[in-house]
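EI: anyone free to look at a 562-residue chain?
SC: sure, send it
EI:
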Amino acid sequence: MLADRSTQLIVVLDKDDGAFAQLCRTLSATHAGIFELRRCDGWSRAYAMIEAGSVAAVLARGDLLNPPGGCTVPLIQLTDTSSVAALPEGVDDSIWIQARTSELIRCLEYSIERHGLQTALDRAASYDPLTGCCNRQLLNDRLRQGMHRASRNKQPLAVLVIDLDNFRHVNDTLGHTAGDRIIREVSERLRRVLRSTDTVGRMGSDEFGVVVEDYSESANILLIAQKVTNELAEPFNIDGESLLLGCSIGIASYPEGGLTVDGLLLHAHMAMQQAKGQRGCNFHFYDDRVNLHASSLIEFEAALRLALRRNQFELHYQPRVDLRSGQIVGLEGLIRWRHPERGLLGPNEFIPLAEETGLIVPMGYWVMARACHDLNQLSRRGFADIHIAVNVSFRQFQDSQLLSNVRRVLRTTGIDPHRLEFELTETAIMQRSEQVLAAMQGITELGVRFSLDDFGTGYSSFVHLHSLPISLLKIDRSFVRKISEIEGDRKLVNAVVDMGHSLGLAVVAEGVEERSQLDALTAMGCDQVQGYFISPALPFEELCYFLDAYRMGREDDLLGSL
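SC: here you go
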């Protein structure tokens, strides 16, 4: 009969019946019921008892002191003398077989308590506290061990990187408590559909890793990925809400997908990004083509960082004309990259990568500083009434130093803040509207004004516009392109102009390339226009020549059209 809950079972591994009897007498003298001794003649029986979870410690001596598979409970050496020079490796403590009862009890209690504390510390260092899954460190260790086994036994191994879709939105909307419940349920679902031999680990906020060994053939790993995808596509019921998340899975197999832990995980993560780009509960196998694409992106990112340090960027300016006066009243600053090998690159070739990597933040501050510097240069050349508009990324609004950096640039350059305009897209405003609105209000108080760029391509409503501290509304070029040909586009632009005016906003039309577009916009009462019909974006020195020529009436074609 096993010991009850208040009794701790101690296994004695010893071939000497007399020693076992001596220990029993020592413990029973004054501490009957605290410990129960059970003698075993080998580790196989001891392991079975340890596996059952009933053993508190093992006492062993002689050749039985070396467990063939290690020992997960305190291992205490039984000695025939009262002094021991050094403890063998893997042994927690030692006790003389003739020790007094108090010494034996103290040794057992201390070893058990210390081992329990160490186990708790090890678990905290190796397991995710929310889900009980392996953390990233332990998952890496399991993957490393699995790769050794796969190499030794010529067996397949794969790692799956699983990223939840839409989790951040749910977390922001319903709160972190609901988010934690979803993460716990995800871990439970993964355990339910995977084998007990597969390792599940939580690698990040909403990212999990799975190590799958010995799956016989590649088709089986695809079936596993499909099972996981199907399981996570099912709704999550949180406080009466039925939520659909889904997941994106990247798969890399050993050794084709990498020869190291870091390499295998990197390639699985790259494949996951490919799956995420396909949208909607997908999984993707890593292949070398993905790697080649990623390598080129890494090189391009490094070149982008170098360009910031070496001042390889330029601002070109596109004039904005007031349709009532015919005067140039503003400029839009557009960044260009003077690449040492590829020549002049437009923003579409590097801004998406800058957004993804976060380089858009320091790049954006460079644009602000350069625009303010050029405003001072324009003032010296007699164009103190012209303002400059620059694009501001949503990423910059995530930077806690945005307001202080804008204030510093204004103070350093000494420009009139009313001559600086920040352009925001609808999408940027809608992503984190409260955060963006607070930053906009702080910047507006400095005197800088805002315009809403590419209006009509995002999700804004006029009700929402009314709550924003913006001064101008910019109609996207896609609506301007065919206003002289398509009645529907003309009516839409006309309605935007009218409603913008009703909200007290000036309306600017982008992408004006033809006289017919200019005439239509003038008839609608649009306030300002910009586009190739006026001028393309120009480097600063060419811009200054253009402004001089325009003011002095030497731009005959342009003046004749306005």
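EI: The CA atoms of residues 74 and 114 lie 9 Å apart.
SC: 👍
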